[in-house]
Amino acid sequence: MEHSELPDIITLLAGRIAYEPARIFLLRWETIIYAALAALFLFLFFWAAGRKKAALPGKLQGCAELIVGGIDDFVAGVLGERGRKFTPFIGTLFLYILVMNLMGLVPLLKSPTADLSTTLALALCVFFYVQYTAFRELGFTGYFDHMMGKPRGAILLSVILPVFLLFLHLISEVVRPLTLSLRLRSNIWGDDLLLSILSRFGMQGLPLLVFSTFLALIAAVVQSLVFCLLTTVYFALAMHGQDEEKKEVTHGL
Question: How many folded domains does the chain comprise?
Answer without folding.
Answer: 1
